[in-house]
Amino acid sequence: MDVLAEAEDHPDAAELHRRAEPRAPGLSLPTVYRTLSALEDQGVIQRHQFEGAPACFQRAETAHHDHMIDIGTGEAVEFRSDRIEEPQARIAAKPGYDIVHHRMELYVRKTRG
């Protein structure tokens, strides 16, 4: 959990294993998968499955945000926009709903700089 808490990116299980193994010599990849599954079931972490990439993880206590995924590098960039969130809430509210959870993923390609 410490390794994931320190992450500034969205590591997959293999990357978490690579980062954690020096701290816990002998740690197996299956143990990492089982731990991630248990933490996800408990709501401690969130799993993201971006198109064309293995599942990646982040702490659940982060504020709501959406993602842009660079299709060239696979990097996931977090963003939040009230100009996007507010219309979604209005659309859900019109027939009497509150948004419980949603996810927006923009797949992008760098065109300059």
From TrEMBL:
> Where would you find this protein in the cell?
Cytoplasm
Q: Where is the composition biased (Basic and acidic residues)?
A: 7-22
Gene3D superfamilies named in the record: 3.30.1490.190, Winged helix-like DNA-binding domain superfamily/Winged helix DNA-binding domain
Q: Which UniProt keywords apply?
A: Cytoplasm, DNA-binding, Iron, Metal-binding, Repressor, Transcription, Transcription regulation, Zinc
Keyword Repressor assigned to the entry: answer is: yes
Q: Does the keyword section mention Disulfide bond?
A: no
Return the protein name.
Ferric uptake regulation protein
Q: Which organism is it from?
A: Rhodovulum visakhapatnamense
